[in-house]
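Hi team,

Filling in the usual template for the complex we talked about on Friday. All components are listed, including any nucleic acid strands or ligand strings, so the model treats them as one assembly.

SUBMITTER: L.P.
PURPOSE: interface mapping
COMPONENTS: two
RESIDUES: 642
SEQUENCES:
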Amino acid sequence: MKLLFNTNFLYSPMDGVVAVHAPATVANMVCGFDVLGFAVKEPYDEMYIRFTDKPGVTIINLDAYNLPTEPELNVAGAALLAMLEEIPEPIGFELSICKHIKPGSGVGSSAASSAGAVVAANRLLNDRFSKQDLVRFAMNGEKVASGVKHADNIAPCIYGGVTLIRSIFPLDIVPLTAPELYVTIVHPQIEVRTADARSILKQQVLLKDAIRQWGNIAGLVAGLLQKDYALIGRSLEDVLIEPVRSILIPGFDQIKQLSKEAGALGGGISGSGPSIFMLSKDEATAKAVEQQMHSVYESLSLDHHTYVTTINDTGVRFVNQ
Amino acid sequence: MKLLFNTNFLYSPMDGVVAVHAPATVANMVCGFDVLGFAVKEPYDEMYIRFTDKPGVTIINLDAYNLPTEPELNVAGAALLAMLEEIPEPIGFELSICKHIKPGSGVGSSAASSAGAVVAANRLLNDRFSKQDLVRFAMNGEKVASGVKHADNIAPCIYGGVTLIRSIFPLDIVPLTAPELYVTIVHPQIEVRTADARSILKQQVLLKDAIRQWGNIAGLVAGLLQKDYALIGRSLEDVLIEPVRSILIPGFDQIKQLSKEAGALGGGISGSGPSIFMLSKDEATAKAVEQQMHSVYESLSLDHHTYVTTINDTGVRFVNQ
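RESULT (copied from the run log):
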């Protein structure tokens, strides 16, 4: 993404500006549909916020995605408006956004905008709100993006690492300590609308499949906390969502199979897709997995981007502070 | 349970007898239907095994429950027969059982018999088989008892502590380290057949309920491994099975509510019932919970037994060795 402005020139800490990097996130984590997610180191969005005299929210786009700048229609704007509702004094925020995470890629582009905005704004406010408050505000951005207040991208973006959202109402976020994990992501340049990916799901599932699913999520949580890579690998199985949603993603089965043959622990659809992620124990394997992803999409003549990165334990990161 | 024989007199290590205590177990653990279970210190069955010249399995009842002694119809016998199928040499086992865990109580009476038998037999065989093998053999006892090969009582009985059965086919057992927990169990003297408790369940469930359930099991596993008592308490919620099955257990809702008011972290149906269990952080609370259980069943004029115990980290225990 080519920048429209040289942001380093525009903003410096001298201006009372808070600058953040808001990372991409992978929701669901195969067997944890709607309740698990993790942040990655790359890609990330750059965001800059400062107070302005004009109360309310002003959005400035520094990228070429041409996203709405009306605060109510902008995911970051909606998150900031929710925050302002709980601030008694009249305050104005000017938020400048340079997105590098392509909207609709399935790696939490909207969550990065919403989460980055409220984390940055909270620093301007001397950290008045808790992380849980920030998740609550940012979920309003997700509602703008997909119609549903969900937190499986927002929570890891704000807390970093792997997070469990045990419950949305009431909000109960559980950070999970994970061992070192390398992440390979491939983003095929096709569009899968979150709303479509949701509507394709059945509202009823077989109890026996649900049991298998919660055996797997229990195994995945135990594998992460006990640093048991083999258990993580065995638990990365989704018998409910993946079989339905993966048909929307060309080459999915082949990428999964070749990635595992290349040594990946496992992986699946990132969020509602179309991106696919794979977890590996070391960087060499993660790069070998990337090669397999390239080869599948080259054979299908499908444009795609790949990332080899790691789990991001920090979440939204302050820059120049 | 009054013993028919003085077992201390009958058997001693001098006779080449292996003696074990096989503990009661609590399956499901509220949100972990079919995949979680834990062992308790009390009650437990006493079992004695030795080689005999007669190949096959001979069962001797030392209690007054009058359970079948034909090995194929006896849960411990069926488990030993499954073990014998994988032993090339002709071997005879003589197993004497003194049950203290009442059959049908919902705290793994059949599992104690099956698990105790194969653990004791394996010691006679100089520990030829792995714990996982023993679970596999003992599951044949569960099939005799309830028609289904399940491991959520067997696995904790053999491994001790809290165990996750991530998968039955293939068998994948994950021991989970738990913090100190006190367990109060009440067994109302009514009969709930496992088959009835199974048939009452719906084969299809709402996806949104399943999501809530796997959020809870993920929270429970994280709470146990991170020794977070509050999280354990919040996660002990079952939106799928308990609402259906609890109608078979008189006083269930009242006992649950009063137990929580007395300080219990939470709890629910033990296995398929009728026993109810509650977890507490300390013994005083566990005893206060016991008093609440007494008061509810006394007000209903319902005969009942209670136990205040702790999680049993050992599982089946060798005696006099």
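MY TAKE: Residues 1-9 of chain B have pLDDT under 50 and may be disordered. Chain B is about 35% helix and 25% strand.

Thanks, L.
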